[in-house]
Amino acid sequence: MIGGERFERLVAMVDVDDENVYVIDVFRVKGGARHTNFFHSTFGDVTTNGLELAPGEPFSGDTQMQNFQTDVSPEPGWSIDWKVSDPYGYVSADRDIHVRYTNLTDNATATLAEGWVDVGLYGSESRWLPRVYTERKSDAAPLASTFVSIIEPYEGSRLFELITRTAPPVSASEDQQPVSIVLKRADGLTDVFLYGPSQTQSELTAPDAQITATGELVHVTLSNTGPVRASLWNVSRLTAGDWELNVAPDAGYLEVDFSEDRATVVSGDRGAVRPALPSAP
Fold this sequence. Notes:
This protein is mostly beta strands. The protein has no helices and 20 strands. Strands 12, 13, 14, 15, 16, 17, 18, 19 and 20 form a 9-stranded antiparallel sheet that branches. Strands 1-2-11-8-7-4 form a 6-stranded antiparallel sheet, with no helix packed on it. β17 and β18 form a beta hairpin.
């Protein structure tokens, strides 16, 4: 579509509990000289955090958008919160439903605009809905980008108190940046997400959370006493607090539960993880 070398996306839906989930979205692109990542929700009003918006340039092309407000150099971690409205009465009016979008992309502009949608039949009714996009440009191709964001639907109270991303190494290619995110949850637990270059095993780390791994993708939930659960893809080693797991080659996807001083594979090849106990002090 862009005549480039890379156009790949990871979208991971993560359970918080029996009722709540969030989404981790990593989009890697290499090619062309302009990359734009759009996101919009449904009807509602939006508030921003971490943005200094000023009138911006309209997006080129026939995109049916208006009211462009841009921050040309936001710090990663800015967010937009949709207070969802329901003009058609599908849910009771007293429900406080939100979608929060947190963007962790390096060296990108952020623009809030409105996008036209047809909500009737053949143009009988239309609306302008809030829309946000993140953009990176280069004077010459090929441009390389890694777009990183968290999509957090919630009702009443947020799922997270703080979302941070460890700055990627300067030497990393922009389209193969390792992604290291720490999400401090409102329930007292902490989620750590590590994602390396696709289809390879590399050294991944979240130093503030005492997590290291050799592999491609890791998601660990931590309590104040250590790991609670881990999801692993193409991983050969995981260190989480006092725990160290060694994984057999070609194990694929695994979920591991940590309880009663045991690491138990609850999804995937049960024999893929070598016997593991907390390492000695």
